[in-house]
């Protein structure tokens, strides 16, 4: 039986700026990654997102990013491993405060954007992030790009890890995501994205931009909540997975 988690980045509004349709998209996912105020989100948005996810019984994870609100955390910043450790501990703690105050429990941590992609290849950064997660709570699950250094670092330190694949992103032959600076980074056609997801889950393979198959493991699928058609895409992905006899289930059972 094929079982996979379906996750989405949420809580990305802040101040006067509204991003995404968080409440509606929660009906189609099993886990959410909540922005912790560095790349997006603010305290009020964090609280409201936690409350909504708990009401709909969707598992909650911290989504720590680089301190880059203007660039939405997608610009590489040359931080040290110690800085990476510090900002991850800080952001996990911030979200965990809201979870505890609402009677909830954190399931996982998934770095955001540039921090995520840097850690996928940089061993020192990935070790620092894994250590931050482990020291805060060794029972947390670490989400990382499938087959990446971040997943390996999590496993090495003793964390449960989840290999993540992306529904709407293209891949390079080394298993990395195509940079958003490239024109072909996103899959614009929903049916193409769904076909890619189903193949990753069932066959453990994805076709790279270089025309070669990349082998990967799909424990959790990321769909983005900030796109123009995010809600309809989430609905389409969920229905297509179920029709393909793929069970959608969160990583942890509690």
Automatic annotation (TrEMBL):
Recorded family membership: Belongs to the LamB/PxpA family.
Its biological purpose: Catalyzes the cleavage of 5-oxoproline to form L-glutamate coupled to the hydrolysis of ATP to ADP and inorganic phosphate.
An individual GO BP term: carbohydrate metabolic process
Source species of the chain: Peribacillus asahii
Gene: pxpA
Entry-linked CDD domains: LamB_YcsF_like
Swiss-Prot/TrEMBL catalytic activity: 5-oxo-L-proline + ATP + 2 H2O = L-glutamate + ADP + phosphate + H(+)
GO molecular function: 5-oxoprolinase (ATP-hydrolyzing) activity; ATP binding
Protein name (database record): 5-oxoprolinase subunit A
Keyword ATP-binding: yes
EC number(s) given by UniProt: 3.5.2.9
UniProt-listed InterPro entries: Glyco_hydro/deAcase_b/a-brl, LamB/YcsF/PxpA-like
Gene3D superfamilies the UniProt entry points to: Glycoside hydrolase/deacetylase
Domain of life: Bacteria
